[in-house]
Design brief:
The protein has one domain (14-312): Rhopdopsin 7-helix transmembrane proteins. The protein is built from eleven helices and no strands. It has helices at residues 14-43, 49-65, 68-77, 84-117, 128-152, 173-210, 213-216, 224-256, 263-281, 283-294, 296-345. The relative contact order is 0.13. It is found in: Membrane.
């Protein structure tokens, strides 16, 4: 990263910070998302449109998690020896994960909004087929923005060490002015502002619907406490992970394009950026919490499975008792018939 002529670079702390945080995210994110994928594909028998969105979110998280060891190696050594293609792919997958996560979380929020606020009118919309179409559209949108961004950026070399190559950072002012600034405008609008508004609006309208007496007493199907908890968790994770990074990204772009000048502003932006980035990356670890609180299907499926096992055991024992009883009755009738037959023949 280039600094102003009279400004000193003050973000050297980011390398040990990234190394530690990304290592933790890799371990926790890999375990939790692999477990979630196992539940979705192997344990969960009944799937709906909500689980379709969440399965795609798991795929997005895992694609990013698999690139984290390369990033950790780079931040420890401050050199990228893996070639230009892997650098560009890692950058692309970072944007794919972040903005894919925001869009898939928004899909889940909109789906819950339709299910609760418009349960009857949304029946034809809330189908697994439509959910798959929406997921395909999200992937096309995200990849069309992230792949060109990653592959248009060239890895740069350090000024004092031509053998060391940068990745994920130190893009020139020309790169920021010609390409990255346009990317920031696009992703901030499509990938952040619109999803944020949709999440907030859908959550508010769901809460207003839950306050209506006829909604609360609708056959006991809607659990107000559970839905409220789901909305709080969903919004908290969305806001905590994505708002700091995306707000700071705007100021960071203004500083890097020399639109916003001043050593104090640059110092603040450079200090906040690594911290906000670490928080944003941690969404891989928090998404499984959304799966648990959001998907009643998962919890109900597990309950149904355990209840089915208990019911099977009860029915089996009852059937066994019934079969034993019927066999005993049949044997008694047979013996009795033979006795009467012998008596009549005597």
């Amino acid at each position: 990263m280039r600094t102003g002529k009279n400004c000193t670079k003050n973000d050297g702390f980011k390398y040990p910070l990234y190394s530690i945080v990304f290592s933790i995210v890799f371990v926790v994110g890999l375990i939790t998302n692999v477990a979630a994928m196992y539940i979705f594909t192997c344990t969960l028998k009944l799937r709906n449109e909500t689980t379709t969105y969440m399965m795609n979110l798991v795929v997005s998280d895992l694609l990013f998690v698999f690139t984290l060891p390369l990033r950790v190696f780079y931040f420890i050594n401050q050199n990228w020896p893996f070639g230009s293609v892997l650098c560009k792919l890692s950058v692309s997958l970072f944007y794919t994960n972040m903005y894919g996560s925001m869009l898939f979380l928004t899909c889940i929020s909109v789906d819950r909004f339709l299910a609760i606020v418009h349960p009857l009118r949304s029946r034809t919309l809330r189908t697994k087929r439509n959910a798959k179409i929406v997921c395909a559209a999200v992937w096309v949108l995200v990849l069309s923005g992230s792949l060109p961004t990653g592959f248009k950026l060239e890895a740069t070399t350090a000024n004092n060490n031509r053998t060391a190559r940068f990745c994920f950072e130190n893009f020139s002012t020309n790169q920021w002015k010609s390409h990255l600034s346009k990317v920031v405008i696009f992703i901030e609008t499509v990938g952040f502002l619109i999803p944020l508004l949709l999440n907030v609006v859908c959550s508010v309208m769901v809460l207003q619907t839950l306050r209506q007496p006829q909604t609360i007493s609708r056959g006991g199907k809607l659990n107000k406490t559970k839905i409220l908890r789901m909305i709080i968790v969903h919004l908290s994770i969305f806001c905590f992970c994505f708002i700091p990074y995306n707000v700071n990204l705007v100021f960071y772009a203004l500083v890097r394009t020399d639109t916003l000048k001043g050593c104090f502003v640059e110092s603040v932006v450079r200090t906040i950026y690594p911290i906000a980035l670490c928080i944003a990356v941690s969404n891989c670890c928090f998404d499984p919490i959304v799966y648990y609180f959001t998907s009643e299907t998962i919890q109900n499926s597990i309950k149904r499975k355990s209840q089915a096992n208990r019911s099977y055991d009860v029915k089996f024992s009852e059937a066994l008792q019934s079969e034993t009883s019927s066999n005993l009755q049949f044997n008694l009738r047979t013996i009795k018939a033979k006795v009467f037959h012998n008596e009549s023949s005597v």
